[in-house]
Each structure stands twice: as structure tokens, then as C-alpha cells.
Design brief:
With 247 residues, this protein is α/β, with parallel strands linked by helices. It is built from 9 helices and 10 strands.
Amino acid sequence: MKQNITIAGPFSRLQGVLHLCDMEENRDKVLVMAHGFRGSMDGGGRAAQLADEICKSICSVVRFNFTRCTMLSNQVAELKCVLDYVRNTLKPKKLFLLGRSFGGATCIITACGGTAYRPDGMVLWSAPNSLKRTFVQVLGEKAFQEAQQGKTIVMDDERGHDEIPPAFVADLMKYNIPVLLKRWENGSLLIIHGENDCIVSPDQAKENFDLAGGDKQLHYMKGDNHHLDLRFQEAGDLIKRWLKENI
């Protein structure tokens, strides 16, 4: 069963979708999905498809939209509000996070920043280890430096028109993903990364894997890119199998 939901966020209402598991006995196991920079909860239709597949028998799924191009600190605050909603509404016996790209960084900060929002397991999909290296690649080195000097960066492409204020980059620099991941000592961790990712370099996945503790897996998608365009179904199958093992 799928229904649109509205969640009270820290700044505005957040739009989302709740996929209740078809198997009633698994409805109280929940996966929360966090999308990437300039992305959406639908993920071009593929995130929605994966959620539909998962909720058939494995667990319930919650997808939602972050405020577009908001600062990382704001995304963390929004994810915490979503987790509060899930805990209060669904009262999960087990809770998992799945973060795609920038959403992966948001999940790491939220899960490893303390025990209050630590999930039972986490999936990092094309997630960065170095926010600076990643956003130098995303924005371009010149634009990144200009943002550090106080200039607003304008992005106009097939994904739309967005203005990235200098505060966005300044906020990024407050977070140290490696230090945070060292706090992941227990719980299951699944890392999936494209072998040819040119946005978040593949070595960052290995760095994340080496830093984290607990029961962890790292899977490189052969020949694939940041969005896993070639092996999306294979990645989805890995996630479904991992969830089944950890439910």
C-alpha cells in the first residue's frame, strides 16, 4: 500500500511517500531513503521502483524530498524530522537508512553524530568520503573557490536552474566524514559504488569501508557511473538481499 505523506520539517513541510509493506508482519521494519544533491525522492523513477519492490515482502519504505539545494546542516535537520515521524507513526522494530550520494553524507552525519538517530543498518550508494573533493568536482574548482570567497554559484543544465550560495560551501566544510564514520562501530553497512564514478571517485567508497566498523560490505558496480545507470537493477538486488539478511 502506497500513500503520499506530509512531514513537519524544521523549516517547511516535507513531501514524501510511504510504502507500507504488503506483509503485515514486516510493516514495523522500515527503510528511509535520502536522495542526492539536486535530486528527488523519485530518483528518475528508479528509487520509486526500488521502494515498490522492497515493500512487497521485505519492509516498509519512506521516501521524501529534501528542500532543494539546501545546506547540508539543513538536510541533517530534515532527515531527523523524517526519522521522528517514522518512529512516532510506524514505531519500527528495526530502522534502516539508504543515502544516495549527498544523501549518503547526510545519513552518515545523522547516524554517526550521536546515538539518538543511529539506525540498525545503513546503505551508502555513491556516497562521498571527502565533501570538498566531491563538490570541487560537482561545481568545478574555480566555482568552488569563488564560493569560498563569497560568490553565489549559478547552475543551469538539464537538471534545472539552481543558485548555490557561498553559505552552502562554508557549511560543507564543517563536517568531517572520516571522523564520523569511525564512530560506526556496530550495525550493518552496505556500500555500493560505480567503478567509473567521475563525481564521487571510487576510492572514496574504499575509504568509507576501511573507516567503518561493524558488519560491512563493499560492492563496486563494474563499468558503471555515479548514478549506476548500467547496473541499477543489480544494485537494487544487493540492497534487497542485504535487507532480508538484516531484518
